[in-house]
From TrEMBL:
Cofactor(s) it depends on: (6R)-5,10-methylene-5,6,7,8-tetrahydrofolate; FAD
UniProt keywords, alphabetically: Chromophore, FAD, Flavoprotein, Lyase
UniProt key word Lyase: yes
Family per similarity comment: Belongs to the DNA photolyase class-1 family.
Single Gene Ontology MF annotation: FAD binding
One CC-aspect GO term: cytoplasm
Domain named Photolyase/cryptochrome alpha/beta: residues: 118-255
Name of protein: Photolyase
The species this protein was found in: Terfezia boudieri ATCC MYA-4762
Length: 617
């Protein structure tokens, strides 16, 4: 087989972790300066070079704004009815997670009787690593018991990428990771077979064809908790059995299995993070085995290279049509985000060595570079949350997950948020079908103002902290958590736009786009998700800016038009600069605020009250 001719340069693993440092200018030469060419580029596009080519890629139809209700239906024809939600709640409709569990349990005896044939397969999905991989480890154990070969498989599904709104940066990262993974596996004599499946409905059929071709009897995969994936796997479990093949699906991307934690009194799934987290910590203290990490497989028998020689050196396909970065983005994104599990582990180690102790105090400052920036690796599965939490726990040094150094304990709890939101998908599956977690929030009469949405997308709202964040997203395909909250609140509560448009836009651009975390974050910020804030809150973007970017470093980095603005005026240049100074900024193309926060706040309160039919939102 020819080596891959994928058109991207091999990313180097690097020990230089300046990647997302902000401000970057003095610390790294790897990311181009935001001010480069600003004058010449600006007039053509109205935005700085950070945005060239990378913006915006939202695919909403032009709308008639006559009736918000009609418009909403047009955007979200697939939104579930409230009746269907009730049917899920009452158990009349089986939850996709239960369907898969049922498929696995009802076939377990028959599957256990299937004899091992020539090979066992591990199907990589969102778990692109060799170490601490539950299903890979189980597949390996199976081969060891019979001395047969382990083969690994990855299916590229352009339709899934489209349906799940995986961004070009994310797809590019996955494909680059496969290059590294193939090499890591090759060192273990394990082939990685990669194939494109154009029609996502044929995924099961393709897997079965390959299993038969390889005379493989068992296939293992780690569970994906989105509804399409749960249903797909349930179908394949049964389909495989018909062909005397055992498809085993196991938990891996969460540490405690979903369903293990229920509220004390009512025995129901948790809806609020804090009590869930307490229960999670207790559960893991009582069951520390869930934190044990799995070693990578030892090498396959040498003969595998002979019997399965056609499977080695399998080419990695290029990014599918519609998911390609433009040439400028390619250079930037690939040098910013090196792939692979070694890279992830080195980054984790460095973060634990140097930053985690101060995490609690530093994590909210977007210019401070105080977070791990590991989300891209969690999303691709190049790092397991078990490994991450385990290593952090070791650093805590007292065997617990929540006592001792506050920075470490706080970081573990943030990884907990990721896990909590995965549980939400399992127990409240309608969130995967464009339905708000809190069903009554479907009735909010959101606005669908194209001009406002475009201003938000392109970082031209006139609110510097919002614009800086949106431009960081456009450039880096990543945004700091604090500013994710600020821009999400701004979209839903200052612009009164349907938060699902923002949710979608994030997925279209983020390199760490993860359905569960993104949906959870948007739900929280728009107050329509789980874990409601104790009272209805509207972030004041100005106060947020002053509190979390006090010197304006983050703004100056990403909004070059404001680079020379001094002092507190950076947070609100239109209101705080004298007219002459403002005129200079305006001449550079920076806009006035598109809404006044005080008025917007009032509008939002009315909108929420109206939608919820009550006096208080
Ligand atoms: C509106 C909105 C959208 C978001 N969309 C995504 C998304 O698509 N993908 C994604 O991974 N995260 C998302 N988050 C969560 C969070 O912003 C990112 O995980 C975080 O910014 C990643 O940076 P980090 O790796 O340095 O995080 P750290 O602060 O170092 O945290 C460590 C890890 O914990 C997890 N984590 C931290 N905070 C959260 C959180 N609030 N929710 C869930 N997991 C968390 C992440 O896996 C993160 O990598 C979103 C948050 C909001 C408010």
């Amino acid at each position: 087989m020819p080596k891959s001719n994928a058109p991207y340069a091999k990313a180097k693993n690097t020990s230089d972790y300046n990647v997302p440092d902000v401000p970057l200018a003095s610390k790294s030469t790897r990311i181009p300066e935001a001010t480069e060419n600003i004058k010449s580029e600006h007039n053509r596009t109205g935005v700085g070079p950070e945005l060239q080519g990378g913006i915006p890629r939202y695919h909403y139809p032009k709308l008639s704004t006559k009736e918000d209700e009609i418009v909403m239906r047009k955007y979200y024809p697939a939104e579930m009815s409230n009746e269907r939600v009730e049917m899920y709640k009452s158990g009349q409709l089986p939850k996709p997670f239960d369907q898969l569990e049922q498929a696995l349990s009802s076939t377990s005896t028959a599957r256990s009787e299937i004899p091992v044939r020539n090979a066992v397969v591990h199907w990589f999905r969102g778990d692109l690593r060799v170490s601490d991989n539950t299903a890979l480890h189980m597949a390996y154990e199976k081969t060891k018991s019979k001395g047969v070969s382990l083969i690994s498989l990855f299916l590229v599904s352009p339709e899934d990428y489209e349906a799940h709104i995986k961004s070009p940066a994310r797809v590019d990262f996955i494909l680059r990771t496969l290059e590294v993974l193939r090499e890591d596996l090759d060192n273990l004599n394990i082939p990685l077979w990669v194939e494109v499946v154009e029609d996502r409905k044929n995924m099961g059929k393709k897997v079965m064809q390959l299993m038969e071709k390889w005379n493989a009897s068992h296939i293992f995969g780690n569970m994906e908790y989105e509804v399409d994936e749960l249903r797909r796997d349930a179908r394949i479990v049964n389909m495989a059995l018909q062909k005397n093949i055992d498809f085993t699906v196991v938990h891996d991307s969460v540490i405690a299995p979903p369903g293990a934690l229920l509220t004390k009194g009512t025995g129901k799934p948790f809806m609020v993070f804090t009590p869930w987290f307490k229960a999670w910590v207790t559960y893991l203290h009582e069951n520390p085995n869930y934190l044990e990490v799995f070693p990578p497989p030892t090498p396959n028998p040498k003969e595998t290279r002979i019997y399965y020689r056609d499977l080695f050196d399998c080419p990695i396909p290029p990014c599918p049509e519609g998911k390609r970065l433009n040439p400028k983005e390619v250079e930037y994104v690939r040098s910013t985000w090196p792939p692979g599990e070694k890279e992830a582990l080195a980054r984790l180690q460095k973060f634990l060595n140097e930053k985690v102790m101060a995490y609690k105090d530093q994590r909210d400052f977007p210019s401070g570079n105080g977070t791990s920036v590991l989300s891209v690796h969690f999303a691709a599965g190049t790092l397991s949350s078990r490994t991450a939490v385990n290593m952090a726990r070791e650093l805590l040094g007292n065997g617990t997950l929540n006592t001792g150094n506050k920075g470490i304990a706080c970081w573990i709890s943030e990884v907990g948020w990721r896990e909590f939101y995965r549980n939400i998908l399992v127990d409240f599956p309608w969130v995967c079908m464009t339905k708000p977690f809190k069903v009554q929030y479907s009735n909010i009469p959101w606005q669908y103002n194209d001009a406002h949405f475009e201003a938000w997308c392109t970082g031209r709202t006139g609110y510097p902290i919002v614009d800086a964040a949106m431009r960081q997203l456009a450039s880096m395909k990543y945004m700091h958590n604090r500013t994710r909250m600020i821009v999400a609140s701004f979209l839903a509560k200052d612009l009164c736009l349907d938060w699902r448009k923002g949710e979608r836009f994030f997925m279209e651009h983020l390199i760490d786009g993860d359905f569960a975390s993104n949906n959870g974050g948007w739900g929280w910020s728009s107050s329509s998700g789980c874990d409601p804030q104790p009272y209805f809150k509207i972030f004041n973007p100005l106060l947020q800016s002053e509190k979390f970017d006090p010197e304006g470093d983050y703004i100056r980095k990403w909004v070059p038009e404001l680079k020379h603005v001094k002092g507190k005026a950076i947070h609100a240049p239109f209101d705080r600069l004298d007219r002459k100074e403002w005129a200079k900024i305006e001449a550079l193309g920076y806009p006035k605020p598109i809404v006044k926060h005080v008025e917007a706040k009032g509008r939002a309160m009315e909108m929420y009250k109206k939608g919820l039919g009550r006096e208080k939102p």
